[in-house]
Structures
1.
Amino acid sequence: MIEEFLLRALVAGVGVAAVAGPLGCFVVWRRMAYFGATLAHGALLGVALGLLIGVDPVFGIAASSVLIALIVTGLQRQRTIGGDTLLGILAHAGLALGLVALAFMSGVRIDLMAYLFGDVLAVTWIDILWIYLGGTAVLAALALIWNSLLAITLNEELARAEGVAVVPLQLAFMLILAVVIAIAMKVVGVLLIVSLLIIPAAAARPFARTPEQMAALAAIVGALSVAAGLFASLQWDTPAGPSIVVAATAIFATSFTLGGALGKRTA
Amino acid sequence: MPTVPGPLVMPPEAQAAGPDLLVEVKNLTVRFGQTSALDRVDLKVSGGEIVSLIGPNGAGKTTLVRAVAGLIEASAGTLWRRPGLRIGYVPQRLSIDRVMPLTVRRLLTLAQPGSGGRDGKVEAALREVDAADLIEHAVQDLSGGEFQRVMLARALLRRPQLLLLDEPLQGVDLGGQLALYDLIGRLRRRHGMGVLLVSHDLHIVMAATDRVVCLNHHVCCSGAPESVQHHPEYVALFGAEAARRLAVYAHAHDHAHDLAGNPVPAADAGGADREPEHPS
């Protein structure tokens, strides 16, 4: 008989993976891995803000994500600091500010490690409800804008000429990303969230011929990683979140090697 | 189906210019910072007409096409498009990254939201450009010529009244270039669409071109291919030697090229389907 806490972890993790897979494909296609990492690190500041004004951290994370997205967009035009440097500054400033802000809140007892590395073995059924509600909303929104988002990812100029509203789509994509970061935080923590977005997507690439196949495969790889990681965590008493990421990386390495071997035709 | 944004200003003369007029640009000036990319440019494209843009690098050819596509705002002047005009646009140097898996079929169904690609239109469009056998290929595996055909098929799915082709021959090998120009001419005849195309080469325009517009920020000269070739501004811009080498692409009757690329008198001065060129 499977322990209930493990079942909860599995249900929560699979729920997050099912959403992170398709969304992660866009992060990979749009080359936004570092942008995702910046949002995730900055999310800790969002958590602190949420606790400070007494609302659910999800809203704080949404606020910090929008703030970071606006700063990145606003500063992209200047040329004296490169984009990677800018993202690095924002990511680490957000993380550091979050840590400092949390230290000031003496009244609140929080488990910092749970935010940084996740605490999937401690998820409650209420958390799971949130993950599945948020996840369903994210998948519905993604399905709605799927074709337009693919079009602007392929060629923004062409999409614009054909009447696709580029800016609202980019904004919607960032908001969706923020929601996924918020719901994935419980499972792997802010430091490892991006791995759940990009590693399954990268593992799916060699075996996909269309964007939709890649999205579905990425969700499956993510779910397998969660199951394997949780099993390993139980077996060898390793931390659950990092074990999930290690499992995903192992699947990616296998896929990449296999894909390279048989993939001369798709290479 | 999304249409391009409405006209910026509608000059009253535009309607008087004929029911076939698709686009009319008047005195169009586009400035990027201090420099003028386009300086008081006039251009008209009507249905069934092929207009070729030539000019040196950085002359503003792409800027003009992008302005017609509704992607750039004019600093001055007017741009009129027939209300509800459907444009099929093929941008320059479009490349699709390998990070996204994509078959030709999916690329084309993406251009046709709603149908899901089950109505046979994708297959029909590919047949029109002689690329039906490419449908399950990954777009990243296509040659330059194959990719341009697929992009043309994609544009056709939108049932365009105006095709905007920015250097459609770029990355296409020589044999493919000829076939591609033939194809564009054929599509124009079959659908009666207007075509505005940027030539990748200063000295070559396609045989079926009705009008050549030579652009160097301003319109140096325009007219039938043969008249542009002898226009003083064209000669001044490219030099007499280059000017003599302007040739309709498929049927250069007045000269051929030797192995070094120098023009030599053609052995066969006859022409099956058009007047002989001016002797040079």
Note: DSSP finds eight helices and 13 strands in chain B.
2.
Amino acid sequence: MRKVLTGLATAAMMSVSMQTMAQTLAVGKQLLYLAEDVPAGLDYDGPSVSVNTSQTGFINMMDTLIDYPLSGASQDGIRTLDFSRFEGRLAESWSYDAASLTWTFKLRQGVKSCAGNTFTADDVIYTLARGKSVSGAAPINWFLASLGSIKGFDRSVFTGGSRELGDAVEKVDDYTIRIRQSSENNLFLTVLTVYSMAPFDSVEMKKHATAQDPWSHTYANTVNAAGFGPYCLERWVKDDEFVLRANPDYYRGKPDIDRVVIKRVPQSANRVLAMRAGQAQLTQRLAAREFQNLATARGVKVAGIFGNETLVLGLNWRTPPFDNPKLRQAIAYAMPYEQLARIGYAGAGRQWEAHFPTSIAGFIKPEQQYPRDLVRARVLLAEAGFPEGKGLEQYADAFHLAFTAERESYLGPIATAIKAALGDIGIQLQIDPMPQTQFADRRMVKKDLPMALSDTEKPVGPDVVYATRLYFVSPQAGGVNNITNYSNPELDRLFTAAQTEPDPAKRLPLVAQIQNLVQSQLAWVPLLETRTQWAFSERLSGLTWHPDNSLRLFELKLAQ
Amino acid sequence: MTGFVARRLATALLQLVGLALVVFFAIRLLPADPVARLVGQNASREAYLASQHALGLDRPVLTQFGAYLGALPGASGLLQGDFGTSWVTGEPVAKEIGRALPVTLELITISFVLAFILSVPLGMLCALKPGGAADNATFGYSLFAGSQPEFWWGLLFIYFFFAIMGWAPAPLGRLDPLSTAPPAVTGLITIDSLLAGNMAAFSDGLHHLMLPVLTKVFVLSGPIVKMVRQNMVRVLGSDYVLFARASGLPPGRIARMALKNALAPALTLLGVLYGYILGGAVLIETVFSLPGIGSYAVRSVLAFDYPAIQAVVLVIAAVSLFVYLALDIVHALLDPRLAS
Amino acid sequence: MPAEPLLSVRGLSVGFHGAIAVDAVDLDVMPGEILGLTGDSGAGKSTLGLALLGLTRPPGKLLGGHVTLEGEDLLALPEDELRKRRGSRIGLIVQNPRGALSPLHTVGGQIGGVLRAHLPLGRKGAWQRAVELLRGLGLNDPARRAEAYPHEISGGMAQRVLIAMALGAGPRLLVADEPTSGLDVTIQAQFLDELARAARAAQSAVLLMTQDLGIIANYCDRVAVMQQGRVLAPMSVRDFFAAPPDEYSRTLLSLRREAPPAPPAQETPLLVAKDLSKRFTLRGSGKVLQAVDRVELTLHRGETLGLVGESGSGKTTVGRCLLRLVEPSGGSIEFEGQDLVTLKPAELRRLRKRVQIVFQDPFDALDPRWTAAEILGEALEKRDPARIAELLALVDLPATTAAQHPRSLSAGAQQRLSIARAIAAEPMLIVLDEPTSALTPLARVGIVRLLRRLQEKLGTAYLFISHDLNTVEQLSHRVAVMYLGQIVEQGSRVQIFEAPRHPYARALLAAHLAPDPARRRIDRAPEAALAGEIPSPVDLPRGCYLAGRCPQAQEACRTTPQRLIALPDGRALRCAPEAARAMNTEPTLIAGGVLT
């Protein structure tokens, strides 16, 4: 019986490998990329945009106008970008007129999309018009454009204002456009590097427009991301696999890897097994221990970088007693940073010594630091008016530490360690895991969670000013995602000044002040910076970290 | 018999209608907010409202229900056979379910049939010689197989048969990821590859089905063997078997008569088991990276994708009801006492 | 020349986990004879029957002995050979006919299966043979009946199927274990007639095991008694009934030796039911079931009226109507000057004390959580230990019973307790609804004696409802016979039992198997029996309900509804032709003996 089974198995495997070989010979280099999910939708203004794996889809199929150059350095073998400079992609060059707040872009010529269409100014105009129409399920293009103060892209589109593009963008000729800003805002270029500003192939998109769906959202979401990127969609089976084929006419050269198969393998243990067996060449999002485990496997490399993934303890300013600064400091000094990195990330993390990721433009290490110091913590707690925690009983409801139940595997032990640490100084805490959607709802919409563990603060614009606007500026001053309800007019003022300051030399001290201010006030309690890691075959190289945490497949090289 | 079937179909239809009602209102009672999930980082009030409007959640509940049913003019809903579009992918839910359901059904049906073919003779054998070597061995096995959860066995088999022995392929889905799948006609890999004449895909598909089917059969056989054995023992101790022996019927004939009597009551239970396995398929699907209805259901629930949740509940219920009905018909054919 | 025994059993023993059920039994069965085996329940008769075929009910084991059939020791044969002989040389009929048939196979198929196991027949041939067998057993339309499933056939037909299976292959010896338990009186007689005839025709012997001495008396040539696993030497039937060898049989027969109860001196009417009717509407079909059809009854003080009939006769419903446990659809029940039917609930409750009921199954009728004292106390409306002790003594229960729960008591004792509860309130009338049917024959004797004694002492009237004619004969002063909701004949005990006139009553009494070997049914020429079986009580015809089955039916019978006609000798008769005949002969009898 065993012989029969072995015989059957061998025959099957042989036939399959023969088929694979045949395909390889015809195709060229292939990469099997195992992910926890495959893109659910390809419209960056669509419902799937918040799903990380969906981003990998359209990011590799569309190019932006500008991007960051390689810095030339690398961490652990992963290349990094230089966030202080910009490099042209679909745009060749640009200039700025401060008086009229207008940016003029010279677009690259001879760029062909997967559908065979040539990139022109019409595509940029189409893209921005589509963004302003806010017709998608999630208006991300509009949002980024508003962060860059592109004229007309503000809240008024939702409150009865015009949704026509108007004169925000002017076509000078087929390869020249002018974009107007509504106010001085030096986040403009930063915003243009983000995936949701990537131009669509308007010719292709218009082919699929209908009366009910004039901006082809259904097509973009469910069929194809029609852009001017290095890869074209070959095959897409939802919840199963996503196959990309290189665009031979890509303006930066034909990608080294001809065919990339992204396969959904939800069980991380299986991804590990497949990597070990050499069947796949790239994977991500394994548990910390699994990365450690794979690092010892033959033929497999594990590498990571401190990018913008962090762990934050948010204390709601509107919930007493968290409006008490000394209490906040006491908590910060009590945190067991090293232990958290060990138990939550198997050591692939370090204490986060600032409110901004180390990698972003404008980063300085703030003066005020909070190394673990229980003595200091107790003193501060007493100074706050709660010696040894007495008097905190009346705030029992506030001391519920919430986190997403789906990620309990590592957030759970972290929460427990925090509870123990605070217990050491006399603060009693309850742990409160809750479902993802409920957590998101309370944290981002209602903003009423008193204490929350969060690891989703990853600013896609790698700039201190951008991140400030996202997290620390009050809503009245244009803040967007202020999850701890931090409101400081001083910070708002500094931000506005920094955002509108045209001279980089004058901007730097403002940016430094911002960082020191939030750190000393503890707008939130930064816990850890965590490594973004990948496991990949030794034959694979060229991995580069981008702030959206998606790999650019174009940059990868697979040795034979 | 036709009256019996007609009555059951009518009841099933009523049940599905009731279910559609219940699930629609029940998920809207849940505390979390699907809009917030979509809106993500971009939590300005206006954006939130815009998203809410796009999803149709700003309308009164009854209007939403009307749209869901397809009772509103201009739109289509359940009555027209339209399950709506998924809020996560934007695709018609019916299409997604049409893709996911056959994957699970293929796995479960093959496993069930195999488990049945293996378990029934085994159960019979154990009942004919209670306390014998086969009986004790089977008892031990059924305790053992049921002692760990299914996915644990799945992982163990992967480790043993793939990682160590290399007999099974990597648990990366239904086919080798680098190969091309045959065009999807039914959604069942086995049938589709045969229809396309693609023998390589057929054998690859079977090869990839090996481990998941082995896991399911391993776990399923336990309760089925026990059930068959118990029923057989009861039947073998009955008066009519005693009388058959007293009448001098050959042992083979008695065994067959006893088996028929033992299996008939077990059939209904098998239907319930099938429905239960269908619901629990997500664990095996996750372990073996199969894009089946279980994973789809879980994804929909976690993402609060209302149309998908509603549709999945109805579809799984319909499949279960269909299976119950089919088995009940077989049961009524076997046991004339039921049809009257 | 002494014939060789067909079956010779020596030293047969069967044990269950240490207890011996059959204890070194020696027995001989002569060819062609019908040997009766009787004994109390638990004596081991069924176990012995199975053991003769080399079978036991698990966990029993054959401990030893020889069963020699026509020279071969069955128990010494290998299982294969023994199996061949089962059914073909020695057959078995078990007690519960429907339980012995596989519910999922047609009866024809099952008979055919047995035939094919022993005879060289194909499937079709076996089916046809099966149909022939059923026809021979008195079934009309056997081809259609053979396609029925066991749950679709009556008990009587099921038993016939069992005969077909047991006799089909022509065994030399048939072991019949209580073959008629649960069957109606007339069906029982038909069945036993057929069994005896079929056995005689096939020249097989029959080992007939039963507790019913009536069957023994009427059908068996010899009889043996089994007591606690041992079998006493067989004797001829006449010798047995003349002088029973064991205590058990003596007790059973003792009642027949006693004088029947004497009717009360005066006849004062106690309860008069006129035009009593009860209709049930069936759910689903909406048809009307006339359970009780304009019944007229008169009960006198201190007398027992026996109400007899088979299933569907309505006798139980009559009993319940009298107590208004079931609301009558029409008629009146006059009791002590009041009409029970129109009585208000409060007054009805008071009257309930004067009319009591004893049910068939004592275990169901007694609250299992209460002790006997509590049960009696409820009937007395207060717990009076003295009175409770008195009641227990009246029904011959030991005083310790007061503290016991019903489940600790035997069925007979439970029934006595029920009776005690009934007489606690000192009623004028007790309705006894099949009070002995659930009891063993031995317990029956005790209850009958008790009832007689109580009637003498307390002067209570009884309405004794039963299908067991033996007990009715031993208790009743007057008897009424019911058929399909109507009283077809009513008269004194002697009149009904000695000379019934109504064709149904005649058939019923003819089927009555009295434990008296002097008038054996098997020796008598079969009377013109009633055709077919009792029809469904729904959809009754216009004329006489018996017309379809009656051998004397005339044209007028089918169309004219029959009234209850009063005869000069005090009887009531619902049969116009018979009544006419009775009227004509009466003057002749009175005239002094010349019978026309």
Note: The first helix of chain C runs from residue 45 to 52.
